[in-house]
Write a structure and sequence with these properties.
6 helices, two-stranded antiparallel sheet, 2 strands
Length: about 140
C-alpha cells in the first residue's frame, strides 16, 4: 500500500508539480459535485479542516478553484473549478488513464476484474477513526 501511495503521489507531481495528490482528489470531487463547501470536502475525505483549507488556498492561488456565494445562503461559500482547473483536471485524468492502461496492459482480464473488485471492496470499508487518510498531512 505504501508503494501504491508513493506511485500515486509521484504521478500527481509529474502531472502538475505544484499540486499534491490530495489537491487532485479535491479537484475531482469538486468536478463531480459541480462544487461544494470546504467543510463538505473535509467531511467526505475525513481530513482536518486546516488541511483542506491549505489545499484550497493553493488551488485558489494556482487559479484552479474559485469561491462563490451559495445561491441559497449567501453566508456560505461554494468552491468551484475554474475553466483552467477543469482543463488541468481533464488533462491529468487522461494522462493517469494512459499510465494505468500501460501499466496494466499485459494483465489477464480475470486478474483485472479481481483487482478492481478488491479495490472497490477496500474503498467501501470505512477507515477506523484513529486511522489517518493517506496523504492527509500533505500540503
Amino acid at each position: 500500500m505504501t508503494a501504491f501511495a508513493r506511485r500515486a503521489r509521484s504521478a500527481a507531481a509529474r502531472m502538475h508539480p505544484e499540486l499534491s495528490l490530495v489537491s487532485f482528489t479535491l479537484l475531482s470531487h469538486l468536478e463531480e459535485r459541480k462544487g461544494c463547501r470546504a467543510s463538505d470536502l473535509a467531511g467526505h475525505y475525513a481530513l482536518d479542516k486546516s488541511t483542506v483549507s491549505r489545499q484550497i488556498a493553493a488551488l485558489e492561488r494556482a487559479g484552479l478553484v474559485v469561491r462563490r456565494a451559495d445561491q441559497d445562503d449567501h453566508r456560505v461559500h461554494v468552491l468551484e473549478l475554474t475553466p483552467e482547473g477543469a482543463a488541468i483536471l481533464a488533462k491529468t485524468t487522461m494522462e493517469r488513464r494512459a499510465m494505468f492502461d500501460e501499466r496494466l496492459a499485459d494483465w489477464d482480464p480475470v486478474d483485472l476484474d479481481r483487482f478492481a473488485a478488491y479495490l472497490l471492496r477496500y474503498n467501501r470499508e470505512p477507515a477506523p477513526p484513529h486511522d489517518a487518510t493517506p496523504g492527509a498531512g500533505e500540503d
